[in-house]
Amino acid sequence: MRSIAEALASMLPAFSPLGEEEVHLTKASGRYLSHEVRARFDSPSFDNSAMDGYAVRATDVELASAAKAVKLEVRGESRAGGPLPPPLEPGVACRIFTGAPMPVGADAVVVQEDSEREGDRVLIREASPKANHVRARGSDVSSGAVILRPGDRLWPGEIGLLASQNIDRVQVYRRPEVALLSTGDELRALGEELEPGAIVNSNVYVLTEMLRALGVIPVPLPAASDNLREIEAALRSALEADVVITMGGVSVGAYDFVHEAFANLGIEPGFWKVRIKPGKPLTFALYQGKPVIGVPGNPISAMVTFEVLIAPCLRKMLGDPEPHPQPVVARLRDPYHRRPGRVEIARAIATREGDEIVVALHEHQGSGSLPSFVGVNALVTLPADRAELVAGECVEAILWGPGLRAKHSPFDGMA
Ligand code: AMP
Ligand code: MG
Known about the structure:
Layout: H1 4-11, E1 20-24, E2 37-38, E3 48-49, E4 53-56, E5 70-78, E6 92-96, E7 108-111, E8 115-118, E9 121-124, E10 134-135, E11 146-148, H2 156-164, E12 169-173, E13 177-182, E14 187-188, E15 199-200, H3 202-214, E16 217-220, H4 228-238, E17 243-247, H5 258-265, E18 268-272, E19 276-277, E20 283-287, E21 290-295, H6 299-318, E22 328-332, E23 336-337, E24 343-353, E25 356-361, E26 378-382, E27 388-389, E28 394-399, E29 405-406
Helix pairs in contact: 1-6, 3-6, 4-5
The chain binds adenosine monophosphate (AMP) and magnesium ion.
C-alpha cells in the first residue's frame, strides 16, 4: 500500500496544465497566469505629489524653519485630473494636491501642515529637501519591467496592478472540467423523495463546492446505480471531461463495481489503496492519459482524500507551481489515543493562541459523520506509527474552510 507521498508522486505527473486562453481582466480573478507580464509604461507615469501642499524648488525653502519662515508667492494650482500646471519659476510656489502632476521646475512638496497661507503668498515653516513628498515617474514600476510571472495566481492585488497598467486581457491556464460521478443504489438528488434505505447524494454537493473553490469547472453527473452496465455508460460520458472523479463502490463489497467498470472500458489501473485514514480504498487510474480517480463513498473519506490527494493534483493542472498542501505546525490541545498503521487526517478546530496555533481534535473522527465537519478549520496529520499522542505535542495541520481563528486579536474591541 502506498504512503500519501508515494500516492501523490504517482498521481501528479498525470496532471499537467491543459493549455492557455486569454481572458478579460474582470474574469481573471483566481486564475493562474501562463505568461510573464511586463509593464506597459512607467508608473506613476508622471511626477506627482504625495501630499496636499505646495510644489516648490527645494533650494527656495532650504532655510525655512519654525523660527524663520520663508515667504513665497503662490502662482497656479495643480489638482489630480486637472489641467497641467505652468512651469514653476524660482521663488514661487504652486498650490498642489495629492496625485496632481508636479509643475516643470518644481522638485519638492511642502505639506500644507508646515505652511500658512497669507492671501497670494505662503509662509513655509519647514525645509523640504529635493524629491520630498514627490512620487517620481517610474518609481513604482518602470516600463518593460516584469511585474508578474507564469504561475502567479491573480488575487485582488494582482488584478489591481494589471488594471493600473491598463492591461485588460491576460493569458491564463485553462480550467479543467472535472466530472463527478457518484455510484450507489441508495443515492438520491437533493429534494427527491427518500424512501426507506435511500440517502441524499451529499458528496456530489460537497465535492462540487470543493472543485469550485479550487477554480476548476465541476461537472456533476447524475448518480449511477450499483450496476456494472450503468456505471460503464456513466463513465463513458464522464470521460468527456478532463478529469473524472468517481465516488463510492471502490471497496471490496459485492456491489462495488467501479474497478470492474474501469477494466471493461480500458481505464488502466495505477494504484489502489493508500495508507491514509479515512480514505484507504482510494483508487487512481488513467484512460489514455486522462486521470480517473475513485474516492470512497463515505462523506468524510471523500472530503479528506479530495483535500490531501486530489486538490494538489488539480492545483498543478491549474498552473500552480507549488500545488502541495502547505501545512502549518500546531500544538495538540488534548492527548489522543489511536490505532497506529495509517496516517490519520483528523478534523480539528485550530485557534491562534499567542504565537502558537493550538488544535482541538473533534471528538468524533468516524468517516461517516457529517456534523463532525461543521466549523472545522484544520485537518491535522497524525503520524502512522504513533498510538499515543500527548497534549502539547507538535503536529502538522492543513488549514481548511473557515480559516484560522485568533483567541485574542489586535482588532478585539475595535468599533
Ligand atoms: P461505498 O464507498 O460505496 O462503499 O459507500 C460507503 C458509504 O458511503 C455508504 O454508507 C454509502 O451509503 C455512503 N455513500 C456513498 N456514496 C455517497 C454519496 N455520494 N453521498 C453520501 N454518502 C455516500
Ligand atoms: Mg456503494
